[in-house]
Automatic annotation (TrEMBL):
Keywords: DNA-binding, Phosphoprotein, Transcription, Transcription regulation, Two-component regulatory system
InterPro entries attached to this UniProt entry: CheY-like_superfamily, NreC/VraR/RcsB-like_REC, Sig_transdc_resp-reg_C-effctor, Sig_transdc_resp-reg_receiver, Tscrpt_reg_LuxR_C, WalR-like
Domain Response regulatory per the UniProt entry, residue ranges: 3-119
Molecular function GO labels: DNA binding
Domain HTH luxR-type: 141-206
Designated name of the protein: Response regulator UvrY
A Pfam family annotated for this UniProt entry: GerE
UniProt record, GO biological process: phosphorelay signal transduction system; regulation of DNA-templated transcription
Length: 212
């Protein structure tokens, strides 16, 4: 029996995935987490084989949570489950050690197939994600977010979600001055002058849904 931990900050999403996996006789959901921090705690107590990890969550987020989980347990299989199909998220997650990447729009057969595939020690990419990555690798297009560090990416995504500097400071355990430094560094690296322009750039590259 494959033991699965669901990690997503939306309870309805977790409930939906639970229902999708209910009919798979070889898969058992052993726990649910609403954040990366909670996932770190539950992995220790529930000992799952596979973690279905939402990429974009408050706090440390799916990318950093994946890194931390795999440092603690290299045998753990992480599958990113997300709305994001554009760079840099697929490459970043795979480089961090995730073995699968599927979108939330996939059907239950694909999620089950992804879980079974990574349990065999093989990588699984949803078809739409694989296509995007192939195109990105061939077209030679500029990829501005590759210039960013892991922390800069975290700060950027929180800014584009509308979080205030103090909230970013509290969640990421940074001083307000450091958050301000990251913000201005983002402006310089990405060639923008304010948060509105930064958000537009992030939307244009598909890292967030324009509808919010």
């Amino acid at each position: 029996m494959t033991r699965v931990l669901l990690v997503d900050d939306h309870q309805l999403v977790r409930a939906g995935i639970n229902r999708l996996l209910a009919d798979a006789e070889d898969i058992s959901v052993v726990g649910e987490a609403g954040s990366g921090e909670e996932a770190l705690r539950l992995v220790t107590s529930e000992r799952p084989d596979v973690v279905l990890m939402d990429v974009h969550m408050p706090g440390i987020g799916g990318l950093e949570a994946t890194r931390k989980l795999l440092r603690a347990d290299p045998e753990l299989r992480v599958i990113a489950l997300t709305v994001h199909v554009s760079e840099p998220y697929p490459s970043s997650l795979l480089e961090a050690g995730a073995m699968g990447y599927v979108t939330k729009g996939c059907d239950e057969r694909e999620i089950v197939r992804a879980i079974r595939t990574v349990m065999r020690g093989e990588r699984y990419l949803g078809a739409d994600i694989a296509q995007r990555m192939a195109i990105a690798g061939l077209d030679g297009a500029d990829k501005p977010f590759e210039k960013l560090s892991r922390r800069e990416m975290q700060v950027m995504m929180m800014i584009t979600e509308g979080h205030r500097p103090q909230e970013i400071s509290d969640r990421l355990n940074l001083s307000p001055k450091t958050v301000s430094t990251y913000r201005h560094r983002l402006y310089e690296k990405l060639g923008v002058s304010n948060d509105v322009a930064l958000t537009r750039l992030v939307i244009r590259y598909g890292l967030v849904d324009e509808s919010g």
